[in-house]
Amino acid sequence: MSISGIGNYNNILLQWQGQQLKNTGSGSSKSSSANSLNSLFGNTSMTNQLSSMVELTKYAMDAMGLSNDSRVTFNQITKYREQLQNEFSASVKNGLAGIGIDDINGLSFSLDKNGKLTAASDDASDRKAAQAWLDANPALGKDLRKALTDAGIDAESAVDLRVGSGGKLSVINTTADNMQSALNSDADLTNDLRAALKKMGVDMTNGLNFKLDDEGNLAVGNDVEQAEAINQWLKENPKLADAVKAQLEKRDVDASAVSLRLNSEGPVQISVNNAGLNDIQAVLDKQGEAGKKLHDGLDSLGVDPNIKFSIQVNDDGSVTVISDHADRDKVQQFFDDNPDLIKKYRQIETLSGIDDARKAMQVSPTAMRKRIQIESMAAWWADSGSASSYFGNYSGGNLSLLSGLNLNV
Question: pTM of the full predicted structure?
Answer without folding.
Answer: 0.53
